[in-house]
From TrEMBL:
<feature type="modified residue" description="4-aspartylphosphate">
    <location>
        <position position="93"/>
    </location>
</feature>
<dbReference type="InterPro" id="IPR001789">
    <property type="entry name" value="Sig_transdc_resp-reg_receiver"/>
</dbReference>
<feature type="domain" description="Response regulatory">
    <location>
        <begin position="42"/>
        <end position="169"/>
    </location>
</feature>
<keyword id="KW-0597">Phosphoprotein</keyword>
<dbReference type="InterPro" id="IPR011006">
    <property type="entry name" value="CheY-like_superfamily"/>
</dbReference>
<dbReference type="GO" id="GO:0000160">
    <property type="term" value="P:phosphorelay signal transduction system"/>
</dbReference>
<protein>
    <recommendedName>
        <fullName>Response regulatory domain-containing protein</fullName>
    </recommendedName>
</protein>
Length: 209
């Protein structure tokens, strides 16, 4: 179906959240290439609805973008933490009916990045159920506070999504030495123990002499 030349694809203004600018002259057969660094990277799609995932995956494929899919916020957190530099964009529904909500997952991703020096990815809240637009149970402010960069409107998401991806800057390299892991903690602890032990031996030798 051809896109209307006069359609405004913007989400109604939400203070503090980026929304896509309107494109009122975009013939449906035009395909503008995205930046190379965007095409090389990967997207992580999160939605409990299998059909929604397939639609979004097909949308990304049309503009040359690959993606992985998971169905719960818990899976999203683990998948991102296992290989954070693989995904430059995470698109997730707020998903209020889970033990860990989409909003919680957004926040935990930001906390993980901050704690481990990971260059931040671009977080998109997908408003498929219009929950953010209608501000159900104060969801709008919760989304704003969770570190989301952009809200994807529930209707005609192709052009707003393209606009968001086209404006992404390339993420800098990740300094993995800043990552705090159980192994690194154990190594540091052993090193301190060895130093203290050696120091004790020297002191006892001096006392004997």
């Amino acid at each position: 179906m051809a896109l209307s030349h006069e359609t405004d694809y913007r989400l109604p203004a939400i203070e503090g959240v980026e929304t896509a600018s309107p494109r009122k002259r975009w013939p449906a057969d035009i395909r503008c290439p995205l930046p190379d660094h965007v095409l090389r990277s990967w997207r992580l799609l999160v939605d409990h609805n299998f059909i929604n995932l397939k639609i979004m995956q097909a949308t990304l494929r049309r503009i040359g973008c690959g993606s992985d899919t998971v169905s719960t916020p818990e899976e999203a957190i683990l998948t991102y933490q296992n290989d954070p530099m693989k995904y430059n964009v995470v698109i997730m529904d707020p998903m209020r009916h889970h033990s860990v909500t989409g909003v919680d997952a957004f926040r935990q991703i930001r906390e993980f990045e901050s704690a481990n020096g990971v260059p931040p990815c671009f977080l998109i809240a997908s408003d498929g159920a219009r929950s953010i637009l209608m501000n159900l149970n104060g969801l709008r402010q919760k989304v704003l506070d969770s570190g989301v960069d952009c809200v994807l409107p529930w209707y005609q998401h192709m052009l707003p999504l393209y606009d968001a991806l086209a404006g992404l800057e390339e993420r800098p390299a990740w300094d993995r030495s800043r990552v705090v892991t159980r192994d690194s903690i154990a190594e540091n602890t052993m090193g301190l123990g060895t130093a203290k032990s050696g120091q004790g031996i020297e002191e006892s030798d001096r006392a004997v002499s």
